[in-house]
Amino acid sequence: MRNSFGKVAVLLGGKSGEREISLKSGSAVLAALQGQGIDAEAFDPVTRPLHDLEQFDAAFISLHGRFGEDGTIQGALELFGIPYTGSGVMASAIGMDKWRTKLIWHAAGVMTPAFEVVNADSDFSAIERKLGLPLFVKPANEGSSIGITKVKVAGDLKAAYELAAKSDPLVIAEQFVGGGEYTVGILGEQVLPIVRILPANEFYDFEAKYLRDDTQYLCPCGLPKEQEVKIQAEALQAFKDIGGTGWGRVDFLMDEAGKHYFLEVNTSPGMTDRSLVPVAAKAAGISFAELVKSILTLAFKHHGAKARVG
Given this model, what pLDDT does residue 310 score? Predict the structure, then answer.
């Protein structure tokens, strides 16, 4: 069975702001696949033309950010008729867009922190008063906490907006929810144990995610079992609400009263030694190698071989 996948392209690198993290994720995935006798090869879209993908039988997407998890590479793979990991074109595009994810969740009755779209003509003072301080400002279409600011002082929203707008013209300001940061990994229909994230700095920013050694990941997460099971079920449904398939991650926040608010979906989660889905999988008794193989297997279930163009 180990060679039944054919020749697998591990897509890594890319040209988003998360390139370096993607290279780490992809390298770990590549090693895990090759270690199981699977014919896998690294494929960086920055250094190779996309039509070279037609040489492969499947693709494991380890790209993060724009052009990797926003539906663009998924569309190319659809055209080539190549099975690929993760969600399809629509869900990938929506999951990358925090604003449109929230719109769908609102329509579906999913609780998410209050927010406002911000632009250069916004009444910044009014938004600060409406959402309260502190609040978060973030580009709608970025990952890895790139361009995010925690605004704590009245009058600082405009500068935070200008920073976020350097990464994406669509910027949102979001209500602060301060009772804890958590994430739920999803593997097919299996919901992995919830992980609580305890950053040593003020919030789970790029530094806490990738550069510091003092960020703690608690799994078990410390929530009562009944509450964890309820949130897991809601996370799976929230993932499906945007059309998510295969595997992914749904992040949520708790307030001080113990109420949870779903924050965003990651349709191409990190797979580095610090990444959250591998942490949760390990707690569920799934090794990194087993996790990678399961994700690849799901690619054929959701995006099985189609007639190739041309």
Answer: 42
- Catalytic positions are 18, 144, 210, 249, 251, 264, 266, 270
Whether residues 26 and 149 fall in one domain:
no
Query: pLDDT category, 272, cuts 50, 70, 90?
Result: confident
Pairing between β-strand 247-254 and β-strand 260-266 as defined by DSSP bridges: antiparallel
Do 185 and 102 reside in the same domain of the chain? yes
Q: How far apart are CA 274 and CA 69, in angstroms?
A: 19
CA dist 225 and 6 (Å) reads 41
**Token pair belonging to 5:** 């996948």
Buried b vs exposed e over 169-180: b needs ≥16 C-beta within 10 Å? ebbbbbbbbeeb
Report the half-sphere exposure of 254 (CA within 13 A, side-chain side). 19
User: In whole angstroms, what is the distance from residue 48 CA to residue 10 CA?
Assistant: 13
- Taking CA atoms, 258 is separated from 176, 216, 222, in Å, by 14, 20, 12
280 and 198 in a single domain? The answer is yes
Give a three-class secondary structure readout of 232-244.
HHHHHHHHHHCCC
42, 161: one domain: no
Residue 150 β-bridge partners = 136
On whether the pTM is more than 0.85, the answer is yes
CATH of the domain at 130: 3.30.1490.20
**Full residue range of the structural domain in which residue 17 is found:** 8-85
Query: Is pLDDT above 90 for 89?
Result: yes
